[in-house]
C-alpha cells in the first residue's frame, strides 16, 4: 500500500483529500444498483450469517472511543430509523467503568479504526462474557477487535497515518449507514427511503470532491481564528456528532480549546459563554432540524455571538441574519449522509489552524495513533 505523502506536505492533509477515493473503496462491491426485477440493496458479506440474529436483537449497542464513537453517533439516527431496534451508544471506558448492562439478546458493535484500542478491547471482552453477539467495524484486517468479534465489516479506508482520524471517520459513517440499510432490508415500507440513500451513497464521492474545494476558504478562516483561545461548534440531529468530531479535530491537532455542543442544550448553560469575542461555528444544513437551527442562530446573534454558519448551498442569505454572519456553503446530500460532507470543512479548518500555529499536525503532543494502554 502506498503510504508516502505524495504531493501533500502532511499525512493528515493527504488523508483529508483522498476521501473521495477512500469512500469509493469502502463501498466497492457492497452497493447493488438494482434493475428491472431486482431492488437496490446492500451486501455486507461479513455479516451474511448473522443478519437474522441482528434483526431479532433486543438492542444494538455501539461501542467505541474518540472519533470512532463520534462516527457511530452520526449514524445513530439512520440506524434507529431503518432498523426499528433500540440503538444505544456507549463510550468504551464508561461502559467498562459502570459494568453497564449488556444482555445475551443484544448485538454489540465495536467501532475502531485501529482495531487495537485497549478500552474498546476491554469492552469487547466484557460483552463476550455477557453472551452478546459481537460485531467489529475496523480498518485493520487481523487486528485484535477483528479477530475476537463473531463477525465484522472492514471499512477499507486504506492505511491512516495521521494521529487525527479523518478518512476513517467518513468511511465508518458510510459503513454504519450500509449496516442500517442491510438490517432494514426486509421492510417494505422503507424501501423508497433506502433506495434514495443508496443513490446518495453512489454520488457521495463526487459530493466530497465538491466540498474539498473549500480548502482555500477554510485556510482563510483559519487565518482569522489563529490567535483565538477557544472555538465552539453547535450541531444537532444528524450533525450533533459533526459538532463533537469537528471540535475534537480542532483541539487534538491545533491545540486550541474547542467544544462540540448539542444546540438543544444551548439555553441550559453554554449561552452564558456567548459574547462578541468567542467564535462559534453553527451547523445549519437542511434537514428536519433546520428551522430549530435558524432560531439558534437568531438567539446567538441577539447575544452578539461571532458566528460562522455552515449551511446548504444556496442558503447563505437565509442563515446569515442580514449578512452579519460568515457562512460556509456545503453541497446537499441525503440527510443521513450529510455528516460525511459537513465534517470535511472542519477537518480542513483544523489542519490549517495547526499548520498556521506551527504545531505538529501528524503527531500532536501527548497523543498516540493507537491507544493500547488504559
Ligand atoms: C481521533 O482523531 C483520535 N486520535 C482518537 O480519538 C481515536 O479515534 C480513538 O483513540 C479511537 O481509536 P480507534 O478508532 O483506533 O479505536
Automatic annotation (TrEMBL):
Start and end residues of each SIS domain: 50-189, 221-364
Lineage: Eukaryota, Viridiplantae, Streptophyta, Embryophyta, Tracheophyta
GO MF assignments: carbohydrate derivative binding; glutamine-fructose-6-phosphate transaminase (isomerizing) activity
Any one Pfam family match given in the protein's UniProt record, by short name: SIS
Protein name, entry field: SIS domain-containing protein
Keyword Repeat tagged: yes
PROSITE patterns in the cross-refs: SIS (PS51464)
Keywords of the record: Repeat
Taxonomic source organism: Salvia splendens
GO terms, biological process: fructose 6-phosphate metabolic process; protein N-linked glycosylation; UDP-N-acetylglucosamine metabolic process
The keyword Repeat appears for this protein: yes
Matches recorded under NCBIfam families: PRK00331.1 (NF001484)
